[in-house]
């Protein structure tokens, strides 16, 4: 049922408070509500932190309890947590949310145009397939299957290209 | 002044015996010239500090007559340089003018005064106005401009017939209103004034560094014109007022001059033209306080 546990070395994401948005490693447990926490590579000093503001991630480091910061840092860099974190969907969602909030009026317009174009492409392909299906559908009944498969194919394709566009435009 | 001259004379006297060996003539020549220049400058510049030490605020040590003596005003009597009065006797302004008599008693001329006596003297003088501080007329008010609005910024108009349109900001006029243009071919907004308060400044900027805006585009150019010669007795007072606004040729030419320069800059930025063509609107889930413009 539970997959992520509070343990020594568990990397946690701080959701609120002064260090909101940073990653820390749990070094020791103080009592039921607090943990000794350290984030040498994310700019968080070694301190006590309540569990409530931490959200556990999938990453676990290997170091003994109450290990000093140097050891924590070594373990962190060995596992390359920063890069692994940036590759997770969680971090990407956060980043996308931030980008969306920072969009200026001009960016919003560009996104609108990109979305419109993408939807048009998709619709165009859909119509094409539907037409084929309706023509062929009178003969064999295999038509509905190929309809769905290419639809799934087509959707990710313009999606990827468009997401790249969006990311580029949002960055601009 | 006399003291200064004596001091200056002493200096060359002192230095001459000291600097004998190296390049005698040149430094000697330079020094008197420098000194003369210095003297002239000193004479003009130097003002004596107040010769009346302050005992308390507003109270000086010496009386008026003592100060007269201290400042040697008896020596200083300035009169205006004597003008060549013989040549140009100051022309007296004309008081009367002779006009020909027209109408019934034609022929001949009559003498008319140019400046006539007033036809009415009020019974009471105008009462003195109380002193006020810092109340300036509108023309002298300080004009402010938000830091987010710089030449070339894209603004969103919020009021008026062009509400929701995105428009390029050119400059701030003397009354504080913003001079703004569509450009006309893009969104049908001409050279127009907009009020700073009723405008959203976006962070999108067009580079307008080299654009020359004609100097005759001022507030008086844009001010609404009203006819002011209605013949009151006639019933139709309202017809004479200008109902229809006609675009003058000058406005069209000014528009072209400005827009051609700006359009060139707009074309350089991708998608900007389409952006200016679009209008701003809110929809579900869009909250202005959360938007970054």
UniProtKB/TrEMBL annotation, chain A:
Every copy of the Large ribosomal subunit protein eL14 domain together lies at 46-119
Q: Which UniProt keywords apply?
A: Ribonucleoprotein, Ribosomal protein
Q: Would you indicate the residue range of the signal peptide?
A: none
Q: Which GO terms describe its molecular function?
A: RNA binding; structural constituent of ribosome
Cross-referenced InterPro entries, in alphabetical order? Answer: Rib_uL2_dom2, Ribosomal_eL14, Ribosomal_eL14_dom, Translation_prot_SH3-like_sf
What's a single GO CC term here?
cytosolic large ribosomal subunit
Q: Where is the composition biased (Basic and acidic residues)?
A: 138-172
- Per the UniProt entry, what is one GO biological process? ribosomal large subunit biogenesis
* Stretch list, region Disordered: 124-172
Q: Which domain of life is it from?
A: Eukaryota
Annotated family: Belongs to the eukaryotic ribosomal protein eL14 family.
The name under which this protein is listed is Large ribosomal subunit protein eL14
Q: Which gene encodes it?
A: Rpl14
Automatic annotation (TrEMBL), chain B:
- Entry's localization field: Cytoplasm, Cytosol; Endoplasmic reticulum
InterPro entries from the xrefs? Answer: 60S_ribosomal_eL6, Rib_uL2_dom2, Ribosomal_eL6_CS, Ribosomal_eL6_KOW, Ribosomal_uL6_N, Translation_prot_SH3-like_sf
Which proteins does it associate with, and in what oligomeric form? Component of the large ribosomal subunit. May bind IPO9 with low affinity.
User: Which intervals of the chain are annotated as region Disordered?
Assistant: 1-53, 88-109
Q: One GO biological process from the UniProt record? A: cytoplasmic translation
Q: Residue ranges of the Large ribosomal subunit protein uL6 N-terminal domain?
A: 41-100
The alphabetized UniProt keywords are:
Cytoplasm, Endoplasmic reticulum, Isopeptide bond, Phosphoprotein, Ribonucleoprotein, Ribosomal protein, Ubl conjugation
Q: Which CDD domains match?
A: KOW_RPL6
Q: Where is there biased composition of kind Basic and acidic residues?
A: 1-16, 24-39
What is the stated purpose of this protein?
Answer: Component of the large ribosomal subunit. The ribosome is a large ribonucleoprotein complex responsible for the synthesis of proteins in the cell.
What GO molecular-function term can you cite, just one? Answer: RNA binding
Q: What is the protein name stated in its UniProt record?
A: 60S ribosomal protein L6
**According to its UniProt record, which protein family does this protein belong to?**
Belongs to the eukaryotic ribosomal protein eL6 family.
Bias-annotated ranges (Basic residues): 40-50
Q: Which GO terms describe its cellular component?
A: cytosolic large ribosomal subunit; endoplasmic reticulum
Q: Does the keyword Cytoplasm apply?
A: yes
């Amino acid at each position: 049922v539970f997959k992520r546990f509070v343990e020594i070395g568990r990397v946690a994401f701080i959701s609120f408070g002064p260090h909101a948005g940073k990653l820390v490693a749990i070094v020791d447990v103080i009592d039921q509500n607090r943990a000794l926490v350290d984030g040498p590579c994310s700019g968080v000093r070694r301190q006590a932190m309540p569990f409530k503001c931490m959200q556990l991630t999938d990453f676990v480091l290997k170091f003994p309890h109450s290990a000093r910061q140097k050891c924590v840092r070594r373990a962190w860099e060995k596992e390359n947590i920063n890069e692994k974190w940036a590759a997770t969907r969680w971090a990407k969602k956060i980043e996308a949310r931030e980008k969306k909030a920072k969009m200026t009026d001009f960016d919003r317009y560009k996104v609108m145009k990109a979305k419109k174009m993408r939807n048009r492409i998709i619709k165009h392909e859909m119509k094409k397939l539907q037409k084929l299906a309706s023509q062929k559908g009178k003969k064999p009944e295999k038509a509905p299957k190929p309809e769905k498969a290419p639809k799934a194919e087509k959707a990710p394709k313009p999606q990827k290209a468009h997401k790249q566009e969006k990311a580029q435009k949002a960055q601009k | 002044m006399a003291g200064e001259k004596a001091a200056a004379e002493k200096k060359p006297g002192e230095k001459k015996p000291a600097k004998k060996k190296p390049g005698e003539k040149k430094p000697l020549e330079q020094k008197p010239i420098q000194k003369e220049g210095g003297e002239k400058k000193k004479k003009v510049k130097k003002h004596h500090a107040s010769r009346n030490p302050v005992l308390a605020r507003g109270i000086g040590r010496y009386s008026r007559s003592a100060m007269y003596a201290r400042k040697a005003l008896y020596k200083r009597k300035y009169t205006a340089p004597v003008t060549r009065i013989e040549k140009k006797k100051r022309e007296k302004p004309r008081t009367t003018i002779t006009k020909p008599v027209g109408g019934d008693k034609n022929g001949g001329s009559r003498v008319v005064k140019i400046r006539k006596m007033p036809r009415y003297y009020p019974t009471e003088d105008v009462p003195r106005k109380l002193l006020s501080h810092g109340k300036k007329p509108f023309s002298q008010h300080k004009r402010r401009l938000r830091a987010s609005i710089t030449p070339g910024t894209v603004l969103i108009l919020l009021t008026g017939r062009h509400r929701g349109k995105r428009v390029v900001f050119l400059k701030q006029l003397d009354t504080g209103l913003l001079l703004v243009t569509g450009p006309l071919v893009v969104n049908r907004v001409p050279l127009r004034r907009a009020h700073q308060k009723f405008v959203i400044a976006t962070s999108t900027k067009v580079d307008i560094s080299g654009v020359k805006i004609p100097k005759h585009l001022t507030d008086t150019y844009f001010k609404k014109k009203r006819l002011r010669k209605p013949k009151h007795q006639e019933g139709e007072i309202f017809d004479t007022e200008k109902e229809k606004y006609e675009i003058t040729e000058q406005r069209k030419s000014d528009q072209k001059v400005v827009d051609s320069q700006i359009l060139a800059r707009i074309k350089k930025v991708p998608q900007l033209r389409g952006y200016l063509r679009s209008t701003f609107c809110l929809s579900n889930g869009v909250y202005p306080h959360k938007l970054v413009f």
